[in-house]
Amino acid sequence: TLENAAASGDTSIRGDLVSRGHLVLGGLNSDFRINQGGVRFESGSTLAVTLNDQGFASELRVDNEATLEGLEIALTAKPGNYNEPIIYSVIFASEFVDGWQAFTTPEFAFLEISDPAVMADGPDDFRLTFTVTPSENSLVNFAQTPNQSATASAMNAVLASGSADADELQQNFSVLGVSQVPGVLDQLAGESLGAFTNAREANAQAFAQALSRRLRAGGYAPGPVPVSRFEQRVEEATRIPAGAAGSDPAYRGGWLEA
Q1: pTM of the model
Q2: Helix, strand, or coil here: 40?
Q3: How far apart, in whole angstroms, are the C-alpha atoms of residue 6 and residue 8?
Q4: Residue 205 phi, psi dihedral angles, 5° rounding
């Protein structure tokens, strides 16, 4: 019986396993294997899974049956290009006991996650899968203030540029949760200078700084968005020579630096 446990790389145990808490699988291309036994996830238990845009995910492989009594599959998606539907398999077992229940979290802003489903590869060979599909949402859909809306519109214009920096931005945006987007828009607009509190927002900090450097170099022109403090800063930033941030008191600190 495990209350809470985390695996590092490939892990194997022998015999039946009952999970009553949080089980973190190893990273990508690694599996947690239960030899000569089955697994039972009691109600309220969580299975933490990491996945990427190449179709790889951490896996749980069980020789015997799997019993899922309301399992939460907590997903951590690595930044990437999720441009096409991708099917992920996370639990492999000889049987999934009738009445199994599982669901995924969190709710992503730009990815649609299907309900888990069991697929059969043979008489005693089953796997629990879900599909990740790009959604039709854009940054504007999650803006909560006029300034966030203007920021989102300008960022959409940047993302449409097709540059290498725009691709990096898109990869990081793709794995944001719904609740995170407004805060990231504020960061990009310079509304909030507080510390980032999690990994996804740390990614936002990194690509915001990269975008800031491009803007200072005149790499992007502002799009036709409503006039706002953000747009004014974009217009000013595109006129700053590369490497000149901070040299003029009017631009001290840079508009995107956190």
Answers
A1: 0.72
A2: strand
A3: 7
A4: -60, -45
